[in-house]
Each structure stands twice: as C-alpha cells, then as structure tokens.
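Hey, I was hoping to borrow your eyes for a little while. I've been puzzling over a protein and I'd love to understand its fold better. The fold is given in discrete form, as structure tokens running alongside the sequence. I'd be grateful if you could look everything over and explain what you see. No rush at all, and the record is pasted right below.
>
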Amino acid sequence: MTVSTHMLRRRRFLPLFVTQLLNAFNDNLYKTAMVLFVVYSVYNSEAAEGTFSAIASGVFILPFFLLSALAGQLADMRDKARIIRIVKAAEIVIMSVGAAGLFLAWKGIAVHLLAIPLLMLALFAMGVHSTFFGPIKYAILPQHLREDEVLAGTGLVEAGTYVAILFGTILAGWIPVEIAAIGVIGTAVIGYLVARQVPEAPAQGEVEPLDFHFVRSSIALVRNTSHDRRVFLAIMAISFFWTIGAVLFIQFPPLAKNVLTASKEVASLFLVIFSVGVAIGSVSVNALLKGTVSARYSPVSVIAMGLFVLAFYYVCRAWPGEPQGTLLNVAEFIAHPMAIPLLLCLLGIAIAGGMFVVPLYAFLTTFVPKTQTARTIAANNIVNSGAMVVGSLIATGLSAVGLDIVHHLLLSAAMCLVSAWLGVLLLRAERAARTA
C-alpha cells in the first residue's frame, strides 16, 4: 500500500490540504447553522421546512452549474495557487454577509424581509466560491504529487474534507447561532493566511483566451470530456452519487424534527455520522486498491449503499414519535432502542458511498493530460450540479405535494441502482482499455 501520510509533511501538499479542510469546515459550519436555525426556530411545518432545505441546497449548487466551465478554464490556464488566494480573500467578504444574516435572524430583526435573503445571498456566493476552488483542489494534485501518490492524495483530500465537514457540522448543531456568525468570519481569515503558503502551480500548457459565454463553454467542456469513455462514465456515476447525497442531506433536518421527533443536535449528529462514514470509506478503498486507480469495488459499494438506505427507511417508518411539541435530546435519542440500528444504517450508507466515489475522482485526474485536469473536474462539476439541482427540485416537488419526508428515502435507494449500473459500465470500459 502506498504510504500517504508522508505527504502531510510536505509543502507541496500540506497547505492545500489544510486550506481545503478549512474551506469544508466553514462551508458546513455556515450552511448547517443556517438550515438548523431556520428549520427549528423560524418554520413550524414539515412541508415548509423540507422546501426551505431543498431551496437552500439548490441555491448553493446553482453556481456550479453556471460557472464551472469558466472555473475550469481559469484553473488550467492560470496559476492555481494565485486563484486559491483570490478565492479565499473573497470568502472573508462573503462570510461577513452571512454572519450579518445569522445575527439578524438570531435577534429576530426583519427575519423574512432581510435576514433570510442575506443568508441566501451568502449561500449563493459561497457556491460561487466553491465553484472556483473545486477544480483546483483535485487538478493541482497531479502537478505537485508523483503519479503513485495521486490516488492516496485524492483519498486524503476526500477523507480530510469529510472530517472537516464533521467538525463544522458538530459545531453548527451545538453552539449558539451568534457564535457561529463569529466563527465563520474567523475561519475565513485563517483560510486565507494558510492559502498564501500553497506553492505556485502555473499553467501546464498553452494559455488560451477565456470563454465567458457560460452556456457555450459549458456545452463544449462537457462534450470535450466525453471522448474518454472511462472519464465520461466516472462523471455520470459521481453525478448520481452526489444527487443521492444531496437528497439525503436535504431530508436530514426535517426528518429528524418531524419523523424522529429529535432536536437539532440530533439532526447535526446525522450529518456527523454521514461525514465520518464517507471519510472511513475514502481511506478504506485506497487500502483495498493498494494505490491502483480502479472502479473494481464501485458497483458492489453502491449496491450496499442502496440496501443501507432501504434499511434506514424501514427503521424510520417503524420509529414511534414523541408527543407533539416534545423533541428528544442526544442522550434521550441514543437511549432509544431503535437509535443504534438507525445510526448503523446511516454509517453503512456513508462508508459504502465513500468507497464508491473516491476512485472515480482519481479517474478524472489520472486518465486525462495534466493540461486538462481542471477542466475535466469542472465538466464533472457541471454535470454533478445539474443532477443535484434536479434532485433538489424533485425533493421540493415531493414536499410541495405533501409526500411524507420519510418516503423521499426511496428515491435515494432507487438512484443507487442507476449508479451501480454506471459503475459496471465503467469497470467494463476500464478492463477494455487495459487489454487494448
């Protein structure tokens, strides 16, 4: 197995790794604090809460769909380290706006007229921020790491990302919203200072003019990445995975409140368990593959994920709710006889998901020229975000027509079958390329 931890002591990897940790931490501290506060303190309707959660998810995802083509062009044709520093400086301004929204909502000042619009504006801007940072965090790896380190580096970035999501989510569920407002600004400042230490990563090929027409450039970008069947299938499989993830994340807060009659700290615990599981899966699949980039375990992993989603659904269906107005705290929830099976199902979903998706990201950075890696990641983000927006719209529609939130889980389970089929096609294409 490739020893990957030595990279954490190298400047060619550590500053980028820490910058991504802080980025994921801040994203989730802000998003989770916002959604939990609104779901638990502003609305009092399962349909309204589900709709708000879905809209918030769509607002964050939309910039990936609109701007990923430009982000990929910039990352491949300009110094990636310089772009990181610009993006992280912008985060300080964005989080200041978001913090103002959190503070106003906490004080109950113009909640619907001003606070929630500010929260959504900052959420959209963070989506723009992540759109430009996303291609770089993967595309820079083949530039700074040896070929036999890329899979390990990808696994570390994915695992570290989910550990950061874990801590951001825990804090958002447990600290007061006014403290979260201060925390997101402080984290943005630290992230900018760390980002200044990322080594230069200049363009690897000829610098071409940027195409600012996002529709034309997006279509061209996705078309150009479809030439390698392995890369195309990896993008499609990743898209379905993140659609499943988006639908699950949309469901957690209203499901915890209305189906399991649990507090916002329990909703935060769900997100934590999910993040821990993906981190475990990310590291485990690297150990199984021994540094080789392969989709060997992807189909069986996503089938296992779908089975765990079904098990999670049946446990939720059987859960006896508390009397109206009563919410279980974490201790009371854990003491419930059905809590451990529920959490184990959720952990299984996440571990299997991590094992499914990490090798697919390695495909995107390994089987294309280094001059094209950022644009390949950007094309992946376009397709991913389009699929996730569709998933958010479906979740919003299901909530709007009054379908119980627990039944949304069946949609996630069904999408796992599509992901498994794509995984099988990818594995066949991988074997065909190996024997050609």
